[in-house]
């Protein structure tokens, strides 16, 4: 089915002769959902010479509603366009059937699910319900900045909080909260629930199944 979509909806439609590179890029994106991508670095991965070709292929995937890109938050539109973007897969089932991975990557799957949920409720980068990721100069990252006309929310997503990832996840969220001068943030997990009070800020750790109303607030 995946090959049929790539061939019929993209290769034939756009007159592409190099279907192998197209398929290799798509498998790479499936295998790296919820992660940053760099077109210049992907040229060697799929065996093409120009990042422009990679960007063109990615635009074909977007037009076919196979993937979506999430921009980094910046006050300047130009800065947003220059920053790396994160890739999300529109149908998580494609990750299950087409990705190449030696691990389950449950955290990335949960993040992709949360992103898709936001999109279903109309959040994007080009309307009044905006969605971004956040990265600061120190390399800390927050998965989602949810910006509407009424407020801004900073949300981190991880499968679970444990000794290996707690500092990274919390510090990434706190960095975004400091940037936007927020006193409260959230970490969405698979099944972990907690309340963290730190540096005068409140972090609600909430299982995804308890956040049915999150995406329509």
Largest sheet: 6 strands, mixed
Radius of gyration: 18 Å
Strand element count: 9
Helical stretch tally? 8
Average pLDDT taken over every residue = 88
- End-to-end Cα distance, whole Å, is 36 Å
Any idea of the CATH topology of the domain at 103-217?
A: Restriction Endonuclease
Explain briefly what this protein structure is:
The protein is of the alpha+beta class.
Could you please describe the fold and organization of this structure?
- The chain is of the alpha+beta class and 217 residues long.
- It has a domain at 103-217: Restriction Endonuclease (3-Layer(aba) Sandwich), CATH 3.40.91.50.
- The chain has 8 helices and 9 strands.
- The chain has helices spanning 2-14, 19-31, 39-46, 51-63, 77-82, 92-98, 106-120, 166-180; strands spanning 35-37, 67-70, 85-89, 130-135, 141-147, 152-157, 184-189, 194-198, 201-207.
- A hairpin with a 4-residue loop joins strand 5 (141-147) and strand 6 (152-157).
- Helix 3 crosses helix 4 (51-63).
Ordered list of secondary-structure elements with their pairings:
Layout (H helix, E strand, L loop, with lengths): L1 H13 L4 H13 L3 E3 L1 H8 L4 H13 L3 E4 L6 H6 L2 E5 L2 H7 L7 H15 L9 E6 L5 E7 L4 E6 L8 H15 L3 E6 L4 E5 L2 E7 L10
Parallel strand pairs: 6-7, 7-9
Antiparallel strand pairs: 1-3, 2-3, 4-5, 5-6, 8-9
Helix pairs in contact: 3-4
């Amino acid at each position: 089915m995946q090959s049929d979509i790539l061939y019929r909806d993209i290769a034939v439609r756009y007159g592409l002769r190099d279907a192998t590179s197209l398929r290799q890029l798509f498998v790479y994106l499936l295998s790296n959902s919820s992660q940053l991508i760099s077109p210049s670095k992907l040229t060697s991965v799929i065996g093409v010479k120009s990042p422009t070709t990679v960007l063109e292929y990615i635009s074909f995937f977007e037009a076919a509603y196979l993937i979506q890109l999430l921009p980094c938050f910046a006050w300047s539109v130009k800065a947003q366009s220059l920053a790396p973007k994160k890739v999300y897969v529109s149908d998580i089932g494609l990750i299950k059937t087409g990705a190449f991975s030696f691990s389950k990557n449950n955290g990335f799957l949960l993040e992709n699910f949360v992103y898709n949920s936001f999109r279903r409720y109309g959040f994007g980068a080009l309307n009044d319900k905006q969605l971004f990721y956040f990265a600061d100069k120190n390399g800390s990252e927050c998965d989602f900045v949810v910006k509407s006309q009424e407020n801004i929310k900073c949300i981190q997503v991880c499968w679970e909080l444990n000794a290996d990832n707690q500092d990274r996840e919390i510090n990434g969220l706190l960095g975004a909260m400091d940037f936007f001068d927020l006193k409260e943030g959230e970490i969405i997990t698979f099944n972990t629930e907690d309340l963290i009070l730190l540096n005068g800020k409140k972090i609600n750790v909430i299982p995804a199944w308890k956040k049915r109303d999150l995406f329509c607030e």
